[in-house]
Write a structure and sequence with these properties.
By secondary structure, the protein is α+β, with helices and mostly antiparallel strands. It has helices spanning 5-19, 64-75, 107-111, 117-122, 124-140, 173-176, 181-203, 210-228, 237-252, 255-264, 267-272, 274-278, 291-303; strands spanning 24-32, 37-43, 49-55, 84-87, 96-101, 105-106, 143-144, 153-155, 162-164, 171-172. 36% of the residues are buried.
Amino acid sequence: MGKHPVLFLSFVYVFAALCGVFIYKDSGHISSGFFGAVSRVVEKDTERVYALKTQKKEDGVFSEAVTNEVNALEQTDHENIVRMVFHSETQRDDPFCIVLEYMPHDLRGVVEKDEHYPEIKTNTRGILSQILRGVAYLHRMEIAHGDINPNNVLIDAGTMAVKLCDFGNSVDGKKEGSCSPRVLAGYRQDVLSAASLMAYLYLRKEVFNGNILASTAEHLKDVELLLGSEAPCELSPEENIMAGTYKKMEQVVSKNGMDLFRKLLSPDRAQKDIGCILEHPFFAEGNEQDPSARQGEKETQLGA
């Protein structure tokens, strides 16, 4: 049983009533967050495992996240986007329930645990490629995710399958206009978030916050000047963090990888050329091209 058994079972009971038959059984609480509670449930007839998201009304209404999530997932069908199996019929239902395909981990859970990270490190290129393919698909569908972070990237540590989830902050370009400021800002944020996740996969910590992401593209030229010059350069705190991140990334990422990183930090250009980004040479080379991998081999040889 999870951390909130009474709350969880009440959600499952209400959900079962909405379906007209009790078809899911309790399998544990996963997390609680902005949307509400997320729980693991098992379909009784098939023993298939799903994730159940539930949200109760506050002051008689659901948050905008409910509408955004259902709207986005009803339009999507892609191997790198989590699949919605069922949702409550109307927003009169309380709590509102969404059943999703189940993935064992989020990216944070595997990157920050030593038992999983060696395999993650070996498959960094494949993981990042899947994230970008999910982003490219969403943007073709005129959907900006708006909140891509290690908690909202699901992964199966056994198969290395990756799926984007949690569309509560998504923006639909078909409803708002494909060139509306909010949609374009969402596209830009998604690409910058991919750059942040690339650094996270290599450095095992989040180095950007929202403010840094928003200002990165504007300050990238100054950061590159700092790295390419011995002369001191006046930088903002955000630029200093970016400069430090660049230096750390150069120590562990191949030359092709650094070229990709720079392109992702130019989100307007990357968004227009995202097809080319997916064909970047970085994804064709092996992780042995990374300085960190070569250093690991040397340490292994010295210890033999």
